[in-house]
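It is worth pausing here to work through a concrete case rather than discussing structure prediction in the abstract. The textbook approach is simple: state the sequence, then state the predicted structure, then interpret. We follow exactly that order.
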Amino acid sequence: MKIIVNGEAIESAAATLAALLAEIGKADAKVATAVNEAFVPAALRADHALNEGDRVEIVAPRQGG
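Step two, the predicted structure:
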């Protein structure tokens, strides 16, 4: 299915947000995630189903000020 990840269209076979993170090599990364502008906590990623056209944002924390 086609989804948008951080503004870029990709083809993915992932059925869940957790599977998508694994597919793109970020399964163990400390990141914040949102799907269609709604925050998805790490504990709920395995149960959060993805659909055609979903917009996923993956943000890594940064230090600084």
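Step three, interpretation. The longest strand covers residues 55-59. Helices lie at 17-23.
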